[in-house]
Amino acid sequence: MGIEEVPDLPQNTVEDDAIKFHTSTPTEDTNLDDSELGKTEDLFGSSSPLFFKEKGNDCYRDKNFREAIDWYTRALTRLEFSDNDVLRSQLFCNRAACYQALGDWEAAISDCTDALCFDEAYTKAYLRRSAAFEKTNSYQKSHSDLEKALSLDPSLEYVSFYLHFITFFSPKYSTKKAQLKKLADAEFESEKEQMIGKLKDLGNNLLGKIGLSLDNFKVQKNPETGSYNIQFQQ
Known about the structure:
The protein is mainly alpha-helical and 234 residues long. 56% of the residues lie in helices and 4% in strands. It folds into two domains: 41-168, Serine Threonine Protein Phosphatase 5, Tetratricopeptide repeat (Alpha Horseshoe), CATH 1.25.40.10; 173-230. It has helices spanning 34-37, 40-44, 49-61, 65-78, 85-101, 105-118, 123-135, 139-152, 173-208; strands at residues 217-221, 228-232. A two-stranded antiparallel ribbon has the order 1-2. The chain is elongated, with a radius of gyration of 24 Å. InterPro entries: TPR-like_helical_dom_sf, TPR_domain_protein, TPR_rpt.
């Protein structure tokens, strides 16, 4: 028995397939065993985590994102003493989608991280967290998450998705990865320059106590060996 899933877009969909068998991607195979949450009827009761999850999904489709967050949170609370990590990871990822829709990127990142704690091969969680990292200008982390998602599902390199929240990027993940790589490299260089500047300030502060500065030391690279020589100059 299965509940059909809505189209799998990175941001504006939620997991709608709590009980299904052998989907197209292993990371979203959400088989539930009766032993995980008690008797079968408990799975669908009005106080069960699956009932709360479905209520959350309904609210999400109606764009009642804050109410959906409440339902997903209630479902997670019901799972507190359960070992059903698959359902737990889906709930965190669904709630992250709500936070994304509300523009709360830090909360989305946090929930995606929690989802990955329970399912480290959850492609959709990596994609959502990548998008959230990008929104916070954390391009290195965004690129890393996208690379991880592509390593888990290489077919994403060749499948087009419409990311309505990043309209200025190509919809193809292969192109997006290259663009994120450039942003990530630029971010790294900026951070490196800032760190070097701080180290220079620290060095000058220490050397200033004895009347010197880093300007008194000249660094030269030996082109033959690749090593560096430091020379003192007045």
